[in-house]
Model the fold of this input.
Amino acid sequence: MLLLVGLGNPGARYARNRHNIGFMALDEIARRQNLGAWRSRFRSDVAEGLVGTEKVLAMKPLTYMNNSGEAVGEAARFFKLSPEQVIVLHDDLDLAPGKMRVKKGGGNAGHNGLRSIDAHLGNAFWRVRLGIGHPGNKNLVHAWVLNDFSKEEMTWVTPLCEAVGEEMHRLTAGDHEAFMSRVAYRMQPTRDTS
Done:
């Protein structure tokens, strides 16, 4: 079993924030992989099912970003999962908008959701880093992540989340290189072949 965690803040007020791209991507995974209905468990909204051949519990912690680890740790302990069986989807300021990278372990780069998970689980979990770009000044970061994606930004946010949702079976099967390649391929601008 794998735990698929999308990071974000609960409620309509935050739904379209840049910080919530993890929730957005997880919604697409649940939709495209036909996971079960969302319900409440582990202080989260959760949906269960298969992604490829792997049984997964998709979870959106309702503990707010800064305390995400409380919910993730609780679920991981309940199912006796190692950190390597946890995949966290989150926003990343250090990646260009629309870019995606996968890595196992590492630092939290000041991301409070990752810091919280580190504290409750250790840092050897998988991270799906979803690029949202940087505002250019570190003093603007807080407002940047807690503001909504613009209409223009949604032209790459929606396809990125759809590609992650469609290709997630490659990552749950353990092929992170193929997952990254296929998502990158899907994100390429369409070419005129006439």
Remarks:
- The chain has a mean pLDDT of 95.
